[in-house]
Write a structure and sequence with these properties.
38% of the residues lie in helices and 19% in strands. The protein contains nine helices and twelve strands. 42% of the residues are buried.
Length: 280
């Protein structure tokens, strides 16, 4: 069986920077202080477990902290969360991806320019929840049904969750445009690394008869990669690690493709590829 890797896969620079900053903070914190991250620093269970061994404690709210340092995850948070952390006397280390920070700043800028801000994205995703704090009354849309949330008139400023596909963003912008607003300002805030990985996996799908997408089950960008593969008609398996692999997944296959989400570390990818090669 032939094994092909996507041209672009795995860690993006934002994730790599966030992990390095979180690990450095955990290792240099005085023994008397605790280091927390508000939610997992990235959407990868194995990386979070390794960071936990280095001393980084994951909490769900600031109420679970007791002094020390809080690391802001790569997905970012609303300004109110940082203000709350500072008011509690916590030292704040910001590991927000710079492209997420760009989306936050653009949301604030659009509001200052008089636009009603609309973000195309998953309302439950931590990145989107964080962006919602950067302008009042931001509207989140993610499906045609969400068009009912939009005002009937006025001018809208539209941005996207950084890990969405360009195709979905374009479809949603098209639906909004068709409603006949007097003015729209559209800013593409989709991460370049996300688009590169999506384009690369689309190319790879034409060359294989089974695709393996490696990454956290809660990772938005990894789930998008799996969706793209399935939409291309390729037998697709989204796995967190090699432990989720079953031999029947490659039964009768002649070429296997491998890609990975932006929060998937190299060691998980390498281990999986070595296993495929061993049974190939």
């Amino acid at each position: 069986m032939k094994i092909l890797l996507a041209e672009k896969y795995g860690f993006c620079f934002g994730v790599r920077d966030a992990i390095e900053l979180a690990e450095r903070t955990a290792r240099t914190q005085p023994a008397s202080g605790s280091v927390y991250t508000l939610g997992p620093v990235i959407h990868n269970k194995q990386v979070v477990e390794r960071l936990g061994e280095a001393g980084l404690r994951t909490v769900d709210s600031l109420d679970q902290t007791a002094g020390g340092t809080v690391v802001i995850r790569s997905h970012g948070v609303s300004p109110g969360v940082i203000e709350d952390a500072t008011a509690r006397g916590l030292n704040v280390v910001d590991a927000t991806c710079i492209l997420v920070k760009r989306a936050q700043n653009i949301a604030a800028q659009l509001h200052a320019e008089g636009y009603r801000v609309v973000i195309v994205g998953d309302p439950e995703h931590p990145e989107v929840r964080g962006v919602l704090g950067y302008a009042p009354d931001i509207i989140c849309v993610n499906s045609p049904e969400d068009m009912a949330k939009l005002p009937r008139r006025g001018k809208l400023g539209i941005i996207s969750q950084t890990t969405h596909t360009v195709e979905h963003f374009g479809q949603m912008v098209g639906l909004i445009t068709a409603r006949g607003y007097s003015e729209l300002k559209v800013v593409n805030t989709i991460c370049n690394a996300t688009k590169e990985r999506q384009d690369a996996v689309q190319d790879l799908c034409a060359k294989v008869d089974v695709m393996f997408v490696l990454g956290g089950y809660h990772s938005s960008n990894t789930n998008r990669l799996a969706e793209i593969c399935r939409d291309a008609g390729v037998d697709t398996h989204h796995l967190e690690t090699v432990k989720d692999f079953r031999p029947e997944m490659v039964a009768g296959k002649t070429a296997a493709g491998v890609t990975a989400g932006a929060s998937t570390p190299d060691w998980i990818i390498d281990e999986f590829v070595r296993h495929l090669q061993a049974i190939g």
